[in-house]
């Protein structure tokens, strides 16, 4: 009993060291900027003269530009993270998306809006992967799950912050706030140190950040594909069900219109609890796979409730958004397992590209949704896409390696 306070102090001091805190705050700003568009989509488009039935297709087009930027940025920052270091990504990515989001507050046309969402997407792509990679490498394997849980939880709080800032201020000011927060965080990052594991690999003659290595081995490619597929249900929920909740609510026949910003805020409030729960459960069960599997099942259940239950009251609909968000709370575990599956010389490449390929998968998913909407209706189309993502995720998880106890001090070879 005498040693217990020392153990707790030691755990807290490791979890609250500067790289973990800065990675967490960086992801908070990242998620604020990333989901601010979902919150201000309707008012910003209306300010540019878009009305009525055009709000959905124009919103999807802008979202796709953002996701295309994240696809390209994910590859660029991932390679940079393994070649130059995790810190170079943390500095470069936040600078680009902070300036781009300030520019978003100054736009006066749809083409300019699309261009700046693309540039912001490129910048936003680097934050999570580099942060998670750094945290997994500086923390002991016994507490890595707690570290990435902190990062993910702070990120979700950033999405919630986006709702409240957009509710208090005009949409242009909300973009300025996001850009300003990012520039302020750059100052704090000056004192962050690189992981010792990466520094040791950097001194050796080892290929680093070689994207082709992911495709040169069948085993590595399958592991990489599994990582991407496991994350699809999260972004189906975020990119389709929540982002376009006003259109889905109208198709359901709710008693009042759905406010997209409120749906985003409530779903991410649920995700805060989900991220904490999944992180704690993975430490308790000493398994990433079991917990991820449970959350995918939970997500599928609430997707069915969201689309098929005879909901009429808008407040009940919002409550289901909270539960959907909770079931989405395995985002940190999904990125953590991607980082743990690969060696130090490819870890940042994988941890950065995988979440961005999942985010980028919103492009084909929304295309399927829009095509099915014209053929089968809004709800049936969303249901079909949701069942597809869940089936792919279950299949990938079944073949995935458990990484909870894995030592990360190793490299990938040709």
TrEMBL record:
Mind telling me which InterPro entries this protein's record contains? MFS, MFS_dom, MFS_trans_sf
Q: Which UniProt keywords apply?
A: Membrane, Transmembrane, Transmembrane helix
* Superkingdom classification of source: Bacteria
Instruction: Give membrane topology per the record.
Output: Multi-pass membrane protein
Q: Which residues cross the membrane?
A: 20-40, 60-80, 87-107, 113-134, 146-166, 172-192, 221-242, 291-311, 317-342, 354-372, 378-400
**Which Gene3D superfamilies did the record assign?**
MFS general substrate transporter like domains (1.20.1250.20)
GO CC, one annotated term: plasma membrane
Matches recorded under Pfam families: MFS_1
Question: Where does this protein chiefly localize?
Answer: membrane
List each copy of the Major facilitator superfamily (MFS) profile domain by range. 19-404
User: One MF term from GO for this chain?
Assistant: carboxylic acid transmembrane transporter activity
Its name, as the record gives it, is: MFS transporter
Gene source species = Larkinella arboricola
């Amino acid at each position: 009993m005498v040693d217990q306070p020392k153990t707790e102090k030691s755990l807290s001091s490791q979890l609250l060291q500067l790289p973990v805190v800065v990675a967490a705050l960086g992801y908070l700003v990242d998620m604020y900027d990333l989901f601010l568009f979902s919150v201000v989509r309707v008012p910003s488009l209306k300010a540019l003269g878009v009305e009525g039935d055009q709000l959905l297709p124009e919103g999807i087009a802008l979202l796709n530009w953002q996701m295309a930027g994240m696809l390209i940025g994910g590859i660029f920052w991932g390679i940079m993270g393994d070649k130059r270091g995790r810190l170079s990504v943390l500095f470069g990515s936040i600078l680009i998306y902070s300036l781009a989001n300030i520019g978003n507050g100054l736009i006066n046309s749809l083409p300019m809006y699309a261009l700046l969402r693309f540039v912001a997407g490129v910048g936003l792509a680097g934050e999570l992967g580099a942060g998670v990679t750094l945290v997994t490498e500086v923390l002991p394997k016994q507490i890595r799950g707690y570290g990435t849980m902190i990062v993910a939880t702070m990120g979700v709080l950033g999405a919630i912050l986006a709702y409240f800032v957009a509710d208090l201020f005009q949409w242009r000011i909300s973009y300025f706030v996001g850009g300003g927060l990012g520039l302020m965080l750059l100052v704090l990052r000056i004192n962050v140190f690189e992981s010792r594991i990466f520094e040791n690999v950097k001194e050796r003659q080892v290929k680093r950040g070689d994207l082709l290595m992911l495709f040169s081995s069948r085993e590595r490619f399958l592991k990489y594909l599994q990582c991407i597929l496991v994350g699809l249900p999260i972004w189906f929920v975020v990119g389709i069900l929540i982002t376009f909740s006003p259109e889905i609510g109208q198709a359901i026949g709710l008693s009042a219109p759905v406010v997209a910003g409120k749906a985003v805020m409530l779903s991410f409030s649920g995700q805060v609890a989900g991220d904490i729960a999944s992180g704690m459960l993975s430490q308790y069960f000493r398994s990433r796979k079991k917990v991820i599997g449970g959350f995918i099942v939970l997500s599928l259940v609430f997707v069915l409730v969201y689309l098929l239950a005879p909901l009429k009251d808008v407040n009940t609909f919002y409550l289901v958004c909270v539960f959907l968000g909770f079931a989405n709370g395995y985002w940190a575990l999904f990125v953590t397992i991607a980082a743990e599956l690969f060696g130090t010389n490819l870890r940042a490449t994988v941890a950065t590209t995988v979440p961005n390929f999942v985010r980028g998968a919103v492009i084909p998913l929304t295309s399927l949704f829009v095509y099915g909407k014209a053929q089968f209706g809004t709800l049936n189309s969303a249901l079909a896409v949701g069942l597809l993502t869940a089936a792919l995720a279950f299949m990938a998880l079944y073949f995935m390696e458990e990484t909870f106890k894995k030592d990360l001090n190793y490299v990938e070879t040709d």
